């Protein structure tokens, strides 16, 4: 049952995954007890599924419980405890609690380097998460410095098309875009989208996220017809795949409506104004939150293995 939930999550079927994970958690609490490692695994996975759906308060509540128990039972430096710390930091960031996210992110990175090593895949994920927390606060240079390090190491340690390497490329593309380096952002964005279409499929939620971000980059480059057409495609596919009420869909609809109104009022496609830039920044802010939604990685119970969606350190494959 737990592994079927994992399969649903891989496919972006979060409601189906949630339903199964709730059942697994209830059974494990009753049979194994609230502090059993397998129960904590189920609780952590359910928290990530809540986060996938933008239910951050529900995710935070579970993640805090898991972290407190793991610290008590396993110790502050156990890899599973680091997982909980990293995921909780991201949930803070998703809610705009960036100082709390940064404090926890710095702490878990220091421990990860000491315990796992600077080039361990999980340490690199933690470092990437901290870079995005800096990005959330507008600390672009700090974010860029960390993300470039992560990307170079992932290219060397993993491979160019590894999911985690694509994560770093996507994050770096966003950071470039926020700094006005749109050509660099476009180059990375096109490469990421083509790879994810091939590997995940054209309608996978992560592929749609990449398409959304590339559309924003096109708009930044004043290629507005292309941007609007791509965003229309994103909206239609998101309504079909994840539903009209999902935060990702709502963000895309809001962006598309603004672009359409702007284009109608300015048929000559005038240069971007401060109003356009503000809207783009708002859209990117929503996209940063969206990056945090589809970010889970799972690993087999006794062997670290990154699942590699976007940002979150990992989930655990249940037995």
From TrEMBL:
Residues 264-305 are annotated as: Disordered. It comes from the Eukaryota. Coiled coil: none annotated. InterPro entries: NLR-like (IPR053137), TPR-like_helical_dom_sf (IPR011990). This is TPR domain-containing protein. It comes from Lasallia pustulata. The lineage of its organism: Eukaryota, Fungi, Dikarya, Ascomycota, Pezizomycotina.
């Amino acid at each position: 049952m737990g592994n079927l939930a994992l399969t649903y999550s891989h496919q972006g079927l979060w409601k189906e995954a949630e339903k199964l994970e709730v059942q697994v958690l209830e059974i494990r609490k009753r049979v194994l007890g609230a502090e059993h490692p397998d129960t904590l695994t189920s609780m952590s996975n359910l928290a990530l599924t809540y986060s996938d759906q933008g239910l951050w308060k529900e995710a935070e509540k579970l993640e805090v419980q898991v972290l407190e128990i793991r610290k008590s039972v396993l110790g502050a430096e156990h890899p599973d405890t680091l997982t909980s710390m990293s995921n909780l930091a991201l949930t803070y960031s998703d809610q705009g609690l960036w100082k709390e996210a940064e404090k926890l992110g710095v702490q878990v990175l220091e421990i990860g380097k000491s315990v796992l090593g600077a080039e361990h895949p999980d340490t690199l994920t933690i470092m990437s998460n901290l870079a995005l927390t800096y990005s959330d606060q507008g600390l672009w240079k700090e974010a860029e410095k960390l993300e470039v390090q992560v990307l170079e190491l992932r290219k060397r340690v993993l491979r160019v098309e590894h999911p985690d390497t694509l994560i770093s490329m996507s994050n770096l593309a966003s950071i470039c875009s926020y700094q006005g380096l749109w050509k660099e952002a476009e180059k990375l964005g096109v490469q990421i989208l083509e790879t994810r279409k091939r590997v995940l499929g054209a309608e996978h939620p992560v592929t749609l996220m990449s398409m959304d971000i590339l559309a924003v980059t096109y708009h930044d480059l004043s290629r507005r017809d292309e941007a609007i057409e791509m965003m229309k495609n994103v909206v239609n596919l998101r309504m079909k795949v994840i539903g009209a009420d999902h935060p990702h869909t709502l963000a895309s609809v809001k962006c598309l409506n603004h672009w359409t109104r702007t284009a109608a009022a300015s048929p000559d496609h005038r240069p971007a104004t401060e109003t356009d830039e503000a809207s783009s920044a708002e859209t990117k802010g929503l996209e940063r939150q969206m990056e945090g939604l589809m970010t889970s990685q799972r690993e087999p119970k006794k062997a670290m293995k990154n699942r590699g969606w976007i940002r979150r350190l990992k989930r655990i494959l249940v037995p």
